[in-house]
């Protein structure tokens, strides 16, 4: 067989694998949309659906113009990339269009996470600003740190932090912690929704209006996660030396298994945990538990044993339950539990990887299975403190970076009067006050306006 022809076939199959993974990750946008729509009240369903569309379309442009360059631009700068703006010089010797599309699908997912934290009380204009800024600068810089070979935290760097670099294979920190911390600051600066806490500071239930959409969104996200985690190998036809029957295809399969086990374990633990706390079985809580397990395993999905993924999911469930209790105690209001789920479970995922990463799997994920290389592994597995220390540094660095960028942005939008809607608009619902009508014909409350014109007349009378 002609070696050049064989190489072309291999490259083609790898490109198809990456493109298919990109399509799976993009399906997660539909999952986010359904999850968000079901988790808010009916009078805000149209608004949250539109914001999910905006996150995708605005994020696409910002990531094309600036984001990909900041994340993967060829540069000796360990902080930020400096080339490939507007895809200039793509394809290159390093990246092609399929790689851009895959990374773009990750970028727009970050904005979707943040949108959930500030749902039901945010002006539509604000979404345009923060989506552009988050996907164009804030997220790409973190992606450069971890996923560019020049990044200062990268496990592929020529100068490894603590001799290890931080392992965040598919983005517990890069994607989920970034989105969660951004959402946290947005929710804190905006404050709780009207009526979320009574005059005595006790929480008032504001359940989502459609459990069916929540469950549908959860399964769509589960499906998409098989592109998110296994797809992060980028290439599937990579054989491992000294293993005639194993290659990246083996690790891809194992990664899908660890992802499934972590999410499933977190879901079942949340089911019984919440049953003990509230006295009934709650479908929406279980769905968030499943997603919390997925978020946590995303960092170490490729470098841990299946049994460790069960440990990951078990702990993620209790972390999510605990953070939700603390959120109510401190009167923090996040309709999608996005900060607790993506931020808290994402942080746990980084720590978990530093504890349970297996050296053999680390070599497979980052060195194509070459056995002559020595890499630090998880602390609990005898790998020393190098990897664990790098994971902690990543966690703290992401929190500080996102806080210093997104916090001031939300504060500025609030001061300019373009972040939070008025109390009257919030009570009426964003669908009628901002979008001209309800998502459903029968969704309007009996005491509320039925049409946009009726809402305007009520505003003039008041």
Could you explain how this protein is built, in words?
Helix content is 64%, strand content 0%. The protein is mainly α and 462 residues long. It is globular.
Regarding quaternary structure, how should these chains be classified? Answer: single chain
Rg, rounded, reads 22 Å
Number of strand segments: 0
User: What are the segments in which pLDDT stays under 50 over at least 5 consecutive residues?
Assistant: none
GO molecular function, one term: ammonium channel activity
Transmembrane segments: 15-37, 49-72, 101-119, 126-147, 167-189, 210-228, 307-327, 339-357, 385-413
Domain Ammonium transporter AmtB-like: 18-440
Keywords: Ammonia transport, Membrane, Transmembrane, Transmembrane helix, Transport
Task: Summarize the helices and strands and which ones pair or pack.
Blueprint: H1 3-39, H2 45-72, H3 97-117, H4 124-147, H5 172-190, H6 211-228, H7 248-278, H8 283-297, H9 306-329, H10 338-356, H11 359-367, H12 386-415, H13 423-428, H14 430-434, H15 452-461
Helix pairs in contact: 1-2, 1-3, 1-6, 2-3, 2-4, 3-4, 3-5, 4-5, 4-12, 5-10, 5-12, 6-8, 7-8, 7-9, 8-9, 8-10, 9-10, 10-12
